[in-house]
Amino acid sequence: MRKGVRFIVSGFAGVGKGTVVKELLKKHEGYILSVSATTRAPRDYEQDGREYFFISQERFDEMVEEDAFLEYARYTGQCYGTPKAFVDEQLSLGKNVILEIEVQGALQVKKRYPDTPLIFIVPPSIEELRNRLIGRGTETAEKIAKRLARAKEEAEMISLYDYVLVNDDAGECAERLHSLIETVHAQVQRNGEMIRELRRQAQELL
Ligand code: 5GP
To answer: What is the pLDDT of residues 2-26, one digit of tens each?
Structure first.
């Protein structure tokens, strides 16, 4: 069994990265989404344990103390973190684990595990992004302004990422993401065991 790939998907608020990830999970086996903990309030459609674990600031601080997070960050005034145990367990089961997280957290994971591919999803244009954020209707004007300001900051950080994908169509973007992860699986350094076994067989036969 091959070991799973842990990879990061980031993108500006409203870029549709959630939809891309959903398409990927729907169309391809072998992927699982890491469910983060957050101190922000749930949106109408969100369920505890599905989109996020919605926890108090006190509980979040406790988890930081317990070293329970692979990474954590503040984003527009709220805390978000990736519970570590789940990710490790799924990787060892051979699942590709998707971390849908923002830039600061992504860089923390990259520092800890440099072989983690960092993928940034961008919109076809910023005008389109603004329209999507307003059209989503889940946020107040003030929150939208905060998220657009954060997008401007994050745009400066894209050069720290490994790959960029344009979300012109969520289904197509998900297919390109899948191809990318398959390519990562093919990296020589991820196939050490198989290569060693082939060498051993060659030694024996020749
Ligand atoms: P939202 O509040 O829109 O669900 O998420 C806000 C931002 O936080 C998004 O960019 C999302 O990817 C990011 N995010 C979600 N979970 C985590 C996490 O566990 N860690 C970090 N660093 N960012 C996260």
So the answer is: 899 999 999 998 899 999 999 999 9
pTM given for the model: 0.91
**How much distance in Å is there from the Cα of 197 to the middle of ligand 1?**
41
With a 6 Å cutoff on the Cβ, whether 14 touches ligand 1 is no
CA 102 to centroid of ligand 1, rounded, Å:
5
Mean pLDDT of 47-63: 97
By residue range, what is the domain housing residue 175? 6-205
Q: What is the pLDDT of residue 131?
A: 87
Place of tokens 């990830």: 21
Which residues, including other chains, have CB under 8 Å from residue 181's CB and lie 6 or more apart? 5, 7, 96, 117
User: What pLDDT shows up at residue 169?
Assistant: 95
Q: Using alpha carbons, select from 7, 6, 73 the residue that is nearest to residue 38.
A: 73
CATH number at residue 177: 3.40.50.300
Domain-embedded: residue 1: no
Ligand 1 atom having least distance to the Cα of 76: 6
